[in-house]
Design brief:
single chain; 2 domains; 117 residues; 31% helix; 5 strands; two-stranded antiparallel ribbon; globular; three-stranded antiparallel sheet; alpha+beta; GMP Synthetase, Chain A, domain 3
């Protein structure tokens, strides 16, 4: 038997032009098109960036716990830039990490763990 983890998301029309319903494990979240004039929900681009930054938060928090590093909390800010010439892709993505309760050396080590994975 395979040890592969398969994750399935089902996206469907919501009845609102430019909005999709996304479901997994009984949880449903709406995402709006990034080109929708008035986005009421996370846009597809924001959801993508949120997935990347939240991965950083959860991975670092879990690694800190496993290695007994006294992380008290953290904030990750991610920013994606898309050019007018290529609005369908990110030209640049940057992330900044703010960690509380740890030394500078511990913080750098925790962030490096994220970068390596």
């Amino acid at each position: 038997m395979s040890q592969d983890k398969v994750e399935t998301i089902r996206s469907s029309s919501s009845g609102v032009l430019g909005r999709a319903r996304n479901a997994a494990r009984g949880v449903t979240v709406a995402f709006d098109s990034s080109s929708r004039p008035q986005a009421d929900a996370f846009t597809n681009s924001e959801a993508f960036l949120a997935a990347v930054s939240s991965c950083g938060v959860t991975l670092i928090e879990m690694h800190a716990k496993e290695t007994d590093v006294p992380l008290a909390g953290m904030d990750v800010t991610i920013e994606g830039t898309r050019t007018a010439a290529e609005p369908n892709r990110f030209a640049r993505v940057s992330m900044s990490f703010e960690l509380a309760g740890v030394s500078q050396t511990q913080a750098e080590s925790l962030v490096e763990t994220y970068r390596q994975r």
